[in-house]
């Protein structure tokens, strides 16, 4: 038998055996075996859960790490993790965390106020023993023996109090773990009582939860993947001080021995976070370096923390995006997950209160009616050496007002008593925000729209001039609408594809037609608590000084009510001697749509929802003297593509712009351009002179009475690449959404979307015949009123270049169809090809390049 025969027989036997096995197969799959281990290298998300902590001497932690699919992650080492442990020390008015893992740090940063000083800092460890038990299960034994901790010198907190690092098994403890390096950020905490292992029914200090921080910060992250407040406080507690930040000039000042200012190097969470968020408006920052003695008000003070590797972090320009008195925004005092969230009002302390009110000398008698000549910065309630008696005055208002009442926002409290209502437009009842005529236009070009409206009290009170409805006339209405404290206006704009208000009577270049209904003779009382106002006529194509291009209103228009009634304030008292000091109630504006030549009203696209989105950070978004509150569809009526700050900027005698503080003749206030530019200001890469004007970092806008608003230092607290922080879903994508009431951003200029005006008076405009009509001033006025000669940026580029404002980005846009500094007619004759690459599903789609963490450096 040859070798080939042997081979053939062997193959035949194998085939026969295989066929036999196949014949026994019923065709179904067997049960899946257990998942094999995974490393962390491919993980896009991690979850970490601590299941048990035991403390004999060195604590032992058992925990599990899983990936985004729920599979255990193996092969982690101590290089991938960091561990903390702290105890909850009883105290008045509430307990505080104290880390067991501490070290001595000495300042060595050049220029740091504490140079050469030494302090104790909490830290973390990874020098213990880590055992990989398989399937994502781990056991870590701390290197720190909590039963035998030696407190390093100077062994005191920021106030000079001795630190207690002794172990007491009856106290609440917390273990924290974090990932680090290139791993997805995740923190785990485990809060327990060592004596019996209890995790519930134990003393706690749960004051702020991370999700509240993330309303603004999107994901709070610091120090290499520290993202959970419960983890942060294991180090950021009274026993941790940054020596670089210690300011001897402040800490040694008379009367400050018991002040939060005394703790200039403190990184205790309650002190540090309050001071960071008040930032620019800290008394110590507003007053300047000599604030300790109560002198000066030059705004040159500083609040800074010198962090890792002597890096200075200056928070002196931080502005909290809502009223700083809104303690509940962060504390969530009625949240069951933060049972101590109400401590801000029920357990006041020198440390917490003095962190915002950092000029108060708690160790010195301050001025009050019994001590009118005492120190203006002293504590009015007397010398305070500890927190034991704070509640006596500040929770029941015996001497001072309660913390809760003093931290109410009067404008917000007053607003709860008002509701604006648009009832009909041009005689057509408004239902669900539309004056729907079933196929016929409600108003006509050349006509003067009539608007019937009311202001009612949503609390149900019926003690106003018209029962539940207010009398809104300044001379004979309710006190809430008297002069000069109140404001109430009805506005009209057109058309909803993209507002321009061209040819209207509102101030140019963009403002809506407006009537002050408290004082106007065009308003009449129409019974049942309602009023009717006759608005200025809609343009009908007639050439006038306000309408040099002969534009006619078309499509769908919008009517809005905005203003600020006068509120009586939290004490229920109106100002009688100076009514202008009455509270300006931040009442939500309302809008309603009407057809001009549209048979049925077509509402403007909704891109942002202020209440659901913006107010997560702003609480109540109210601007322009509290006149315009919480309604984006009102904002865009004036902040439209034709809008600039031309009317507020410096001009010569003929009306020609002379250039503002940023060198520009005017700045676009188009909502889509302005809001992006403001929020991305501190990340701007603007780099000098561009073809359509001069820029500097950030954006400068001229406002009421020529006031200058420089947003170059605005720091957006969240992730700038995450569009849906502000946007409704899909509204930021370059796609056609007309079928669902949106806009066509695949080809915007060809579908009615306007370019953003950057110059409403074309450069080089001169008097063609000096000395004879028309004069140069008249030509300028006509040019401002005429949108057809405005120089604009094409629609998509107008949005993108508001953030991506460098020269390289602009040249890229130009190469792909963007136009800068041209007329609307030129824009409509051109096609932006941005959607070819940046449209949905494309190689560089907006949703891809703006996904969280991608493209964080804005070119």
Strand content: 15-25%
Provide the gyration radius in Å: 33 Å
Q: Look at the structure and give the mean pLDDT.
A: 88
- Arrangement of strands in the largest sheet: 20-19-23-26-17-16-15-18-22-21
Topology, number of strands: 35
Helix percent reads 10-25%
Compute the number of helices. 21
**Derived structural class:** alpha+beta
Question: Which helices and strands occur, and which strands form pairs?
Answer:
Elements (H helix, E strand, L loop, with lengths): L2 H22 L21 E9 L5 E8 L13 E9 L6 E4 L2 E5 L11 E5 L6 E6 L2 E5 L31 E7 L7 E6 L17 H8 L11 H4 L15 H4 L17 H10 L4 H5 L16 E4 L3 E4 L12 H5 L11 H4 L3 H7 L4 E5 L12 E2 L10 H5 L8 H4 L3 H6 L3 E7 L2 E4 L2 E2 L14 E7 L30 E8 L18 E4 L6 E5 L2 E5 L21 E9 L1 E2 L15 E2 L5 E6 L14 H9 L3 E2 L4 E2 L2 H7 L32 H9 L9 E2 L2 E2 L5 E3 L5 E3 L45 E4 L16 H10 L5 E3 L1 H9 L3 H9 L4 E3 L1 H5 L5 H5 L7 H4 L10
Parallel strand pairs: 13-14, 17-26
Antiparallel strand pairs: 1-2, 2-8, 3-4, 3-9, 5-6, 7-8, 9-10, 11-12, 15-16, 15-18, 16-17, 18-22, 19-20, 19-23, 21-22, 23-26, 24-25, 27-28, 29-30, 31-32, 33-34, 34-35
């Amino acid at each position: 038998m040859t070798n080939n025969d042997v081979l053939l027989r062997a193959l035949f036997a194998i085939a026969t055996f295989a066929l036999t096995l196949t014949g026994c197969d019923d065709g179904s799959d067997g049960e899946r075996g257990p998942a094999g281990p995974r490393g962390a290298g491919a993980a896009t998300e991690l979850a970490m859960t601590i299941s048990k902590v035991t403390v004999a001497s060195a604590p032992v932690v058992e925990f599990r790490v899983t990936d985004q699919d729920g599979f255990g992650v193996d092969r982690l080492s101590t290089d991938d993790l960091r561990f903390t442990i702290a105890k909850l020390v009883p105290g008045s008015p509430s307990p505080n965390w104290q880390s067991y893992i501490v070290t001595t740090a000495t300042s060595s940063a050049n220029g740091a106020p504490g140079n050469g000083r030494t302090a104790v800092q909490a830290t973390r460890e990874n020098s213990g023993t880590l055992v990989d038990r398989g399937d994502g299960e781990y056991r870590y034994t701390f290197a720190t023996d909590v039963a035998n901790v030696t407190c390093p010198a100077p062994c005191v907190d920021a106030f000079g109090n001795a630190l207690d690092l002794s172990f007491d098994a009856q106290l609440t403890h917390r273990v924290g773990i974090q990932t680090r390096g290139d791993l997805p950020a995740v923190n785990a905490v485990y809060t327990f009582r060592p004596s019996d292992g209890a995790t519930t029914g134990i003393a706690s200090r749960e004051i702020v939860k991370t999700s509240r921080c993330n309303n603004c910060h999107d994901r709070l992250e610091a120090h290499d993947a520290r993202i959970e407040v419960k983890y942060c406080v294991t180090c950021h507690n009274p026993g941790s001080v940054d020596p670089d930040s210690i300011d001897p000039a402040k800490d040694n000042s008379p009367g400050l021995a018991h002040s939060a200012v005394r703790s200039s190097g403190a990184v205790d969470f309650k002190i540090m976070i309050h001071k960071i968020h008040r930032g620019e408006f800290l008394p110590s920052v507003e007053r300047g370096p000599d604030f300790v003695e109560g002198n000066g008000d030059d705004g040159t003070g500083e609040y800074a923390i010198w962090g890792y590797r002597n890096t200075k972090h200056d928070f002196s320009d931080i502005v909290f995006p809502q009223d700083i008195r809104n303690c509940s925004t962060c504390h969530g005092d009625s949240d069951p997950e933060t049972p101590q969230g109400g401590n801000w009002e029920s357990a006041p302390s020198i440390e917490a209160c003095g962190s915002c009110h950092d000029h108060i000398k708690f160790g010195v008698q301050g001025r009050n009616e019994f001590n009118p000549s005492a120190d203006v910065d002293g504590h009015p309630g007397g010398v305070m050496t500890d927190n034991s008696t704070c509640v006596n005055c500040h929770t029941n208002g015996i001497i001072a007002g309660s913390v809760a009442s003093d931290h109410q926002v009067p404008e917000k409290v007053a607003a709860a008593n008002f509701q604006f209502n648009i009832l009909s437009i041009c005689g057509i009842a408004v239902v669900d925000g539309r004056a729907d005529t079933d196929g016929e236009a409600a108003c006509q070009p050349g006509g003067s729209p009539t608007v019937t409206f009311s202001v009612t009290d949503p609390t149900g009170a019926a003690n106003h001039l018209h029962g539940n409805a207010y009398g809104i006339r300044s001379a004979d209405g309710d006190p809430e609408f008297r002069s000069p404290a109140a404001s109430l206006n009805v506005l009209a704009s057109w058309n909803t594809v993209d507002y321009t208000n061209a040819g209207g009577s509102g101030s140019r270049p963009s403002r809506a037609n407006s009537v002050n209904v408290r004082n106007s003779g065009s308003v009449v009382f129409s019974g049942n608590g309602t009023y009717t106002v006759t608005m200025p006529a809609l343009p009908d194509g007639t050439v006038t000084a306000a309408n040099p291009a002969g534009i006619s209103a078309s499509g769908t228009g919008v009517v809005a009510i905005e203003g600020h009634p006068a509120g009586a304030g939290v004490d229920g008292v109106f100002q009688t001697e100076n009514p202008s000091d009455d509270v300006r109630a931040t009442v939500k504006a309302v809008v309603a749509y009407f057809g001009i030549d549209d048979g049925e009203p077509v509402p403007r696209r909704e891109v942002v929802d202020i209440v659901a989105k913006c107010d997560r950070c702003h609480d109540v978004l109210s601007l322009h003297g509290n006149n315009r509150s919480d309604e984006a569809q009102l904002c865009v009526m004036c902040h439209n593509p034709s809008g600039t700050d031309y009317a507020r900027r410096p001009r010569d005698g003929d009306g020609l712009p002379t250039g503002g503080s940023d060198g520009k003749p005017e700045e676009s206030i188009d909502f889509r351009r302005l809001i992006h530019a403001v929020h991305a200001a501190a990340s701007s890469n603007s780099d000098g002179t561009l073809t359509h004007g001069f820029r500097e970092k950030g954006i400068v806008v001229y406002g009421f009475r020529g006031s200058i608003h420089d947003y170059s230092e605005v720091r957006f607290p969240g992730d700038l690449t995450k569009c849906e922080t502000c946007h409704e879903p899909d509204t930021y994508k370059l796609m056609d959404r007309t079928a669902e009431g949106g806009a066509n951003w695949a080809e915007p200029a060809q579908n009615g979307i306007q370019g953003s005006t950057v110059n409403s008076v074309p450069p080089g405009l001169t008097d063609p015949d000096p000395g004879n009509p028309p004069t140069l001033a008249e030509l300028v006025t006509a040019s401002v009123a005429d949108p057809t000669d405005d120089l604009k940026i094409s629609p998509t580029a107008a949005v993108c270049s508001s953030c991506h404002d460098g020269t390289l980005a602009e040249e890229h846009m130009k190469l792909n169809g963007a136009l800068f500094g041209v007329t609307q007619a030129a824009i409509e004759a051109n096609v932006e090809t941005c959607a070819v690459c940046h449209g949905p599903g494309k190689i560089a789609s907006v949703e891809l390049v703006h996904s969280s963490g991608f493209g964080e450096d804005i070119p």
